[in-house]
Structures are given as structure tokens and as C-alpha cells.
Amino acid sequence: MFASRTLRAAVLFAAPLAVWLVAGAVPAQTPTAVTAAVPVTATMPRVLGDPQAPVEVIEYASLTCHHCATFHNTVLPQVKQELVDTGKIRIVYRDFPLDRSGVEAATLARCVTPERYFPLLSVLFAKQDDWSHAKDPVEVLARLGALAGLSRTAYDACRNDQALQDAILQSRLDGERLHSVNSTPSFVIGGKTYKGVLPFEDFKKAVTPLLPAP
């Protein structure tokens, strides 16, 4: 049985994160240092699969969450092959950052073009230990972003964009308010919130009753 992040940890994190965002803990750049524009798509929903697929699954995850990495590295490939690529479900990924590094990584992912978003998520989860435990996670994240075609200037622009930072935090707050999410990963399927890493068979079992009759 996978351990979950507790509600107490979530509450303790939310307040200082809000203060950090307002106070601008991301080092401010001078107007001449950051010239790249933040993509207008940065705060738009991220959907894996056909947006018109009959069943919507909402995933709340943090890029620093080990159990989220387990799901993405070991379960999601089969979910994608059997349920997403076949047009049965779509997965809406929503940020639920657990710490500052989680916000930095979410910012990086949202700053790349939408078609590179999920491939970059896969890399970030696969290499989670490398960047999340680094002395300077931002530097490592910037290098990973470069592999996805994102310049350091563009990354810094996103890190200093208050609207994007607020949107990432709001995603977490909405998860808590709308779906009682207090741990990651959490999945909302048919209005019910499932917590923890769902093995493929459990994931499929939750989805199947919602699929249209053949």
C-alpha cells in the first residue's frame, strides 16, 4: 500500500507558498535581462488524448512526488496505450505542487509548447531524483528545458510571471476545494476522487462503467 502525503503537510505548505509567490522568491530579473514573452498557452488546460473522448480523468500530481513518478513511469504507459490512444478516455493533468521545487518544475513544463508538455513531464518524472535532489534544481531544470527547446531566458520569464505562478498555485487550491484532494497522486473519475497510485487494473475498473455501451 502506497503511503500518501498528509493533509497536514498540504496545509503547512500552502501558506508559505502563497507568501513566497507574493513576495517574489523567484529572483527578479531586470527588464533588459528577460526579453522572452510568456506563452499565452502557459495557463491553458493540459489534456492527454482526444479532448472529445467520452470519459474525463483528472489527475492531480506534483513533479516532486515519488508516488506520482511511480504512476507515470510504470502505470501510465499502459493506460495511454489501452485507454487514451484508443479514444476511450482523456486525462486532464492539473498541478498540485507540494513544495517550491514542484512549482519550479511545473513552471518549466508549462513554459514549453503544448505538444511538448507531456513528453517533458515524462522526462521530469523519469529523472526526478536527478533534479529534485540537486544542489540547484533550477539549473538542472533549465538544462532539461533546453532539451525541449526552451531557452533559459524564456524559462526565467515564466518564473517571473506572476499570472503563471498564481495559476499553478490556484490549481492546487481548486483541487483541495472542488475534489477534496489532500495527497498526490489523486485521480477524479466519474466525480469520485481516488488517492494514491492506481494499478492499471484498478484504473481500468474505475473507468469502464463510464464508457459508452458498444
C-alpha termini separation: 34 Å
Main β sheet profile: 5 strands, mixed
Q: State the assembly state of the protein chains.
A: single chain
Rg from C-alpha positions? 17 Å
- As for the CATH topology, it is Glutaredoxin
Low-confidence stretches: 1-35
CATH hierarchy: architecture: 3-Layer(aba) Sandwich
Helix residue percentage? 40-55%
* Spatial sequence of strands, sheet with the most strands: 1-3-2-4-5
Order of helices and strands: HEEHEHHHHHHEEH
Number of helices: 9
Strand content: 5-15%
User: How many structural domains?
Assistant: 1
Please state the average pLDDT score: 87
Structural class: alpha+beta
**Strand tally:** 5
Approximate shape: globular
CATH secondary-structure class: Alpha Beta
CATH superfamily annotation? Glutaredoxin
Record the SSE blueprint.
Blueprint: H1 7-23, E1 46-48, E2 55-61, H2 66-84, E3 89-95, H3 100-111, H4 114-126, H5 128-132, H6 137-147, H7 152-159, H8 162-179, E4 186-189, E5 192-195, H9 200-207
Parallel strand pairs: 2-3
Antiparallel strand pairs: 1-3, 2-4, 4-5
Write structural notes for this entry.
By secondary structure, the chain is of the alpha+beta class. It contains 9 helices and 5 strands, in the order αββαβααααααββα. A 5-stranded mixed sheet has the order 1-3-2-4-5. α2 links the parallel β2 and β3. α3 runs parallel beside α6. The longest helix has 19 residues. The radius of gyration is 17 Å and the shape is globular. The N terminus is likely disordered.
Which key features would you list for this structure?
5-stranded mixed β-sheet, 5 strands, Glutaredoxin, 9 helices, globular, single chain, alpha+beta
